[in-house]
Amino acid sequence: MGHLIVFTDLDATLLDHKTYSYRPARPALEELRRRRIPLVFCTSKTRAEILPLREELGNVHPFVAENGGAVYVPRNYFPFPLSNARTEAEFHVLELGLDYRKLVRALDEAAKTSGASVRGFNQMKDREVAKLCGLSLAAAKLARHREFDEPFLVEKGTPQQKERFFTWLRERGLSWRQGGRFFHLMGTNDKGAAVARLLDLYRQHYTQVRSVGLGDGPNDVDFLKVVDVPVVVARPNGRHHPELLENLPQARRAAPGPAGWNQAVLEILG
What we know:
This protein has 270 residues and is α/β, with parallel strands linked by helices.
């Protein structure tokens, strides 16, 4: 069977869409910890947002931030050196994404060129992000501390303007994914490439690996295609996103949020 590794999205998956609570998932979290099964966060959240959650959960494993923008591996986690990684504080960092400043400039230029009205996190204040996301001001500040991914809203524009906007980005080698609340502008990185990179490292360490992935939205398709056992978590309305079902017809299906996450993980472990 190999060593089990669990990769998970956070928002509306392990964490409740509105409250950001993981409490209903505690039984499965405790069982993973008891069995020493790595739980790897794979999320659009920033490193600044993920670190407090890791500490709260006692999670000591690698994580993927900002839709695959970077992989963070704790120092001495693997018993071999990591090529192309830089060391920063307690982590080895594998950068897969584009510098945030370049993304901000590209977003602004694409909006001006196309005529579409677009606003990214860089144009928002902490208070607005808090209101849009249902976060505290402190949490919103962490969410705006971005390095490889710019969340944005397309607020106004004709269908032609919106098409020109996305075409401009695509022609310059940029990509985007649709999350639960925002579009996310990125380079060529995605969650799938980041998870594949981590799985290579786990295979070097364990040889035999069996991987599980849980996600709920279109920006999870890439990494759910990479794992052995994909699990599609239902959206808050109780429905599974059609894009995930279309791309992952063989995937298991789970109920919404942390309660569904908990049941799916316990069934897999059982």
